[in-house]
Amino acid sequence: MDAFSDLFRGMRAQGSLFGSSILSPPWALHFVDGAPLTLCTVLGGTGWIVPEHRPPEQLRAGETVIVRGPAPFTFVDEVGTRAEPIACGEHCATPEEGGTRHRRGWNDTCGGSGDGATTLIVGAYLVRGEISRRLLDALPVVLRVDCGGGANAVLDHLAAEVATDTPGQQVVLDRLLDWMLICALREYFDRPTGESPAWYTAQRDPVVGDALRLLHAEPAAPWTVSSLADRTGVSRSTLAKRFADLVGEPPLTYLTRWRMTLAADLLAEREAVTVSEVAHAVGYSDAFAFSAAFKRTRGVSPSEFRRTGTTVPEPAGPTTPLRGRGADGSQVGGVLTARRRPDTARE
Question: Which segments carry the region annotation Disordered (predicted)?
Answer without folding.
Answer: 301-347
